[in-house]
Automatic annotation (TrEMBL):
The lineage of its organism: Bacteria, Pseudomonadati, Pseudomonadota, Alphaproteobacteria, Rhodobacterales. GO terms for biological process: negative regulation of DNA-templated transcription. Belongs to the HrcA family. Residues 115-336 form the Heat-inducible transcription repressor HrcA C-terminal domain. This is Heat-inducible transcription repressor HrcA. It comes from Roseivivax lentus. The gene is hrcA.
Amino acid sequence: MQDSPKLFDQMNARSREVFQRVVEGYLESGEPIGSRTLTRTLSEKVSAATVRNVMQDLEYLGLLNAPHASAGRVPTETGLRLFVDGLLEVRDLDSADRSKIDATLGSNSDDTGTLLDRVGAALSGVTHGASLVLTPKHEAPIRHIEFVSLAQNRALVVLVFADGHVENRVFTPPPGLTPSAMREAANFLNALAEGRTLSEMRREMTHDIETRRREIDSLAHELVKSGIAVWDEEGDRAERLIVRGRANLLGEEADPADIDRIRTLFDDLERKRDIAEFLELTEDGEGVRIFIGSENKLFSLSGSSLVVSPYMNADRKIVGAVGVIGPTRLNYGRIVPIVDYTAQLVGKLLSDRK
């Protein structure tokens, strides 16, 4: 794929305008845009034959594609990326959209999980797409860790945080783990904690495992991996993915192929365990990021786009993310400010709880 500057260099003013009109028309209608339609909207009076020649050149550059035998064209993923990077006009947040989001998130009295569930519902309702919300992990320093055997293949870890927060998590211990080994592992972890958060402990343990693997008791090592380093148990409320609005992508007029792609998308979401990947999508900056089709490996088979933005806590640390999924024909100019505003609002609401 060529980068945007090189592609722009190969386009003159006429081809850029034709390209922009094709993409804008496609995003609005979802239909291929023909040369006769374009001749009525271009600033320069040219023939339909001239426009067809320009569209063929744009197709050669990999920016447009003819999906059927018709003369109409639609943008490719490369074309959409070029449009988003260089030609997209992001408008101000519509006052009606702002009011709907504010009304849904107006109360800050519920627990964090309920608040963020409302965020997902608000985003889905306002954008008529599917929403994603990655909830924050509890990042207070650890005061005490204790393991309790529940059954032969089930155990409980009790986490007591310095701020008084207590969490209980059920996990599957390594086969043959004895209660005495659990106590030794807990003693090891409590000595390691020393006011560290779970993230800091994981980094420290990873370093120790890499540099002093033989010095760490193998059972404790396995317990660390099973009980602390993996937070993917079903029902875990400390870090979870909230998905809302599946029905919005399965409208009555949806094409059967589109329905299959959307089902694939949600199957991917339901199978996805390492949901922290959504935070990784936002690491390069604070603003909104747009992933089109195969640019996002999680949704690569579904032909969807993801507009995502991180939100931060009072310490300006990224702790979660909100986003909207839809077809590549998203109204990016409208969706981007909605996602951006929602992320900022969530960050403020969470910071005000401190």
